[in-house]
Every structure is written in structure tokens, then in C-alpha cells.
Design goal:
The complex is a heterodimer of chains A (156) and B (177).
Chain A (H helix, E strand, L loop, with lengths): L1 H17 L1 H35 L2 H8 L4 H14 L4 H13 L4 H13 L5 H8 L1 H25 L1
Helix pairs in contact in A: 1-2, 4-6, 5-6, 6-8, 7-8
Chain B lengths: L1 H9 L3 H15 L3 H34 L2 H5 L7 H13 L8 H10 L4 H14 L1 H11 L1 H26 L10
The chains are: A mainly alpha (156), B mainly alpha (177).
Chain lengths: 156, 177
């Protein structure tokens, strides 16, 4: 977090010294994006707050925490492939889950499948590339996501 | 004024308002669930609200200084490492969900981009977008983000290579539906 905040401040100062007009545009653009995602973000926070109340922490850790193994990865693959959550919601969510004891391996698989595999968008992808290409790309991406997750689990 | 109020209460903020009312209700009747949920919510909310504006400011500044149009000029039919590099840079500057990348893939294909580079574009688009990396570093840490990038890069280049080998001498085409 502190890293991102410092980078942002440095970027704004450099940008401001080089071009005030551009900096102003960038700031307005960024803030507009922030206001646009705010409702979706708050909805996610409401959902997670209620969910964490209903599902005890021990259950989450047992399913997705250390030692959940193949089962945890399988849940992550299923959730990540089927759901369509934009990154600006998925990462805050992942941050909360991380603090709740979910391990990095599961989070990496969830995030990678979320980004690379799209079951719901498969029909649309097939229209662009053809069914065979779309299926192969999604299939390979799924395998790749699991490999990435395992590697993250080994190194984190 | 009335319009604004009805927009807030019935529009995008409907769930938040309902949530707030439920918490007030719970607090008034001294139900325990309200205070626990409210504590959860407040904890998450304060963290998001302090850091998210910074992330969006950074994304806004990057967006203004690195226009995609400039990078697009570098992506011709030329292949090799240089082509891969520019395709990845172009993909990193984008934002949005994966299905937003399909029309761009179509355009790249029409411009003469190779099969391999099309799929490298899709891979980089889905996993290495700068707005996404900003969020990843913020919420899961720099180490996680660097490791995931290092592992993901060869994976999607390999996927692109497999796609190229598999579809090279078959009928491959990207259509605009």
C-alpha cells in the first residue's frame, strides 16, 4: 500500500512539474473512475461483511486456507472461471480474504482464472475466434492458472 | 433535489442504503449481528477509502502520459522479440474486461499481426494491465505481484506458441460478429 501511495505522489509531482494541464486531466480522469466504481465497491463490501458474519472464519480457512490443498484450488478454479468480477473489485476482495487466512496459492489461482478464463463469455469468444480456438485458449489458460498458483504457493 | 434523493435511494446505492437501514434497525433493537457486521464493514471501508483514490490517481496519470495510439503504431506485421514487446506494452495500457480485448484482437489481426502475437496480446491484456497491477500491488503486495507476473509471462507466451503451432496450417480467422 505504502509503495503505491509513494509511487502515486512521485508520479503526480513529476507530472505536475512537466505539464500542469495534463496532470489536471489525469487527476480528473482518475477521480471520475473512482466515483464510477464506488457503488459496485460498496456493494461488494456489504456482501463480504455479511458473508463473513454468516460463514465462520474457521470454515473459510478450512476450505481455502493453508492445507486446503487440491480442494481449495478446485474451488478457486470454479469461482474464477465462472464469475465475472472486475479487477477493481476482485483485488480488494482478495485482500480481505488474505487477511482472513486464505492462502496465496488459492488467491493466485482465483485471480488468474478470473482474468484469463471466461465460461460466461465463451459464446462471445467463439463468435470472434471460432469454437475450437476459444475452447483451446480457455482450457490452456485454466491449466496455466493452476501452474501459476502452485508456483506462487511454493515461493510466497 | 428530490430527483437526486430518489436516484441515490433507488439507483446504484440502493443496497448500501438498505444495508444502513438494517444496521440502524439492528442497533435500535440491540441485535448483536448488526454491530459485528458494521465492524467488518467499517474495517474494510476505511482501508479502501484511504488507498483507492491514490490508485485511481496513478491510473489517471498513466493514462494521460502513455496514450495507446502511440504504441499501436509500433505493431505491424513484424515479428520477433520486438513485436512481442510492443504487443505486451499495448495490452498493459488497456483497461476493462477480457471481452473488451476481442475487438482489438480483430483489429490487430486485420493489421497483419501474427497468430502468436494475437494470443500474447490476449494473455497480457488479461493478466498484466497496469490498472490491475496497481490494485494487485496495493492489496496483495509487491512480492505477490512480481512473482505472479514472472510466472504468468512465460505461461501465456507458451499458450500463444501452442495456439500458433496448432492453428498455423489450419483455417484461422478472427471475425467481427
Amino acid at each position: 500500500m505504502i509503495f503505491i501511495v509513494s509511487i502515486t505522489l512521485i508520479a503526480i509531482v513529476i507530472s505536475f512539474l512537466s505539464d500542469r494541464q495534463k496532470t489536471y486531466q489525469g487527476v480528473v480522469k482518475g477521480m471520475r473512475m473512482f466515483v464510477n466504481i464506488l457503488p459496485a465497491l460498496l456493494n461488494m463490501l456489504v456482501f463480504v461483511s455479511v458473508l463473513l458474519y454468516l460463514v465462520p472464519n474457521e470454515t473459510i480457512i478450512r476450505w481455502l486456507g493453508k492445507g486446503s490443498g487440491v480442494f481449495g484450488v478446485a474451488i478457486a478454479v470454479a469461482l474464477g472461471s465462472i464469475s465475472m468480477i472486475p479487477g477493481f473489485i476482485a483485488f480488494p476482495l482478495a485482500g480481505i480474504l488474505r487477511k482472513g487466512g486464505v492462502n496465496y496459492e488459492v488467491l493466485a489461482v482465483f485471480i488468474t482464472t478470473l482474468m484469463m478464463v471466461g465460461v460466461i463469455t465463451l459464446p462471445l469468444e467463439s463468435k470472434y475466434f471460432g469454437t475450437k480456438v476459444a475452447l483451446l485458449r480457455n482450457g490452456l489458460s485454466l491449466v496455466g492458472a493452476v501452474i501459476i498458483g502452485i508456483l506462487i504457493g511454493l515461493f510466497m | 433535489m428530490k430527483k437526486i434523493i430518489s436516484k441515490i435511494f433507488l439507483g446504484e446505492y440502493f443496497i448500501i442504503v438498505l444495508f444502513g437501514l438494517l444496521l440502524l434497525f439492528s442497533c435500535y433493537f440491540h441485535f448483536s449481528f448488526g454491530s459485528i457486521i458494521a465492524k467488518n464493514f467499517w474495517l474494510f471501508f476505511t482501508e479502501m477509502i484511504t488507498f483507492l483514490p491514490f490508485m485511481f490517481l496513478l491510473i489517471g496519470i498513466i493514462d494521460v502520459w502513455f496514450p495507446k495510439e502511440k504504441v499501436e503504431r509500433h505493431i505491424g506485421p513484424e515479428s520477433g522479440i520486438k513485436g512481442i514487446f510492443w504487443v505486451i506494452v499495448l495490452a498493459m495500457l488497456q483497461a476493462g474486461p477480457l471481452y473488451g480485448a476481442f475487438p482489438v484482437a480483430y483489429l490487430l489481426w486485420k493489421k497483419g499481426c501474427s497468430i502468436r502475437n494475437i494470443f500474447i496480446y490476449l494473455g497480457a491484456f488479461s493478466t498484466l494491465k497496469i490498472p490491475m497491477l496497481t490494485f494487485e500491488i496495493g492489496f496483495l503486495g509487491l512480492k505477490f505481484s512480481i512473482l505472479r507476473t514472472l510466472f504468468t509471462l512465460p505461461v501465456f507466451i507458451l499458450i500463444a506458441k501452442i495456439m500458433e503451432i496448432y492453428f498455423k496450417n489450419k483455417q484461422f480467422d478472427i471475425k467481427q460478429p
